[in-house]
Amino acid sequence: MKNLFLIFTLFLSTSLIIADDHATEQTFPGLVSSEVFNLGNGMVMHVERRNSCNQDGTPKHFHPAAGTLVYVLDGTSQSKSSGDWKNYSKNDYWFERSDWIHGGEVDTPSLPEGTCQQLLVVRVAEEGKDHTVFID
Questions:
Q1: How far apart are alpha carbons 120 and 11 in whole angstroms?
Q2: pTM for the full predicted model
Q3: Domains of the chain as residue ranges with CATH
C-alpha cells in the first residue's frame, strides 16, 4: 500500500510539472491585481490594475466584453481606440469598444525610454465568458 501511494504521488507530481511546463496563459504586462465583481443578471465586472515601464504595446487581442474603460492612474500610456494613436497621461482615460481587435500593431509608436504607467482597467462581461481573447 505504501509503494502504491508513492507511485501515485510521483505520477501526480510529474503530471503537474508537465502540465505547468506547457501552460502559457497570456496576460498583460505588469498585471498587479485582478478582481471580479458579480453585478447580477449574469454580468460581472473585471477590474485590473497594471504597472509597467518601457511598455510600447500589448499582445494582439480583443474583448468580447460590453466595453473596456482604461484609466491612467499615473504616468503615460497610449491607445489607438479613437482611430489615431494618442498619448494619455495621469487622470486621462479611453474607451475600447466591444470586439475591437488591437495590440501588436506594427505602427505602435515608441514611448520615451523610462516611460512608466499605472493603469486601472474596468470591463463588464457576461458571467462565465472570457473578457479578453488573445490572438496568436
A1: 42
A2: 0.77
A3: 29-134 (2.60.120.10)
Q: Three-state DSSP class for 56? A: coil
Torsion sign over Cα 106, 111, 112, 117:
negative
What values do phi and psi take at 21, rounded to 5? -65, -30
Residue 49: Cβ-neighbour burial (10 angstroms; 0-12, 13-18, 19+): middle
Lowest mean pLDDT among 3-7, 25-29, 80-84: 3-7
How many C-beta atoms lie closer than 10 Å to residue 130's C-beta? 12
Q: What is the pLDDT of residues 33-61, one digit of tens each?
A: 999 999 999 999 999 999 999 876 788 98
Q: How far apart are CA 108 and CA 103, in angstroms?
A: 9
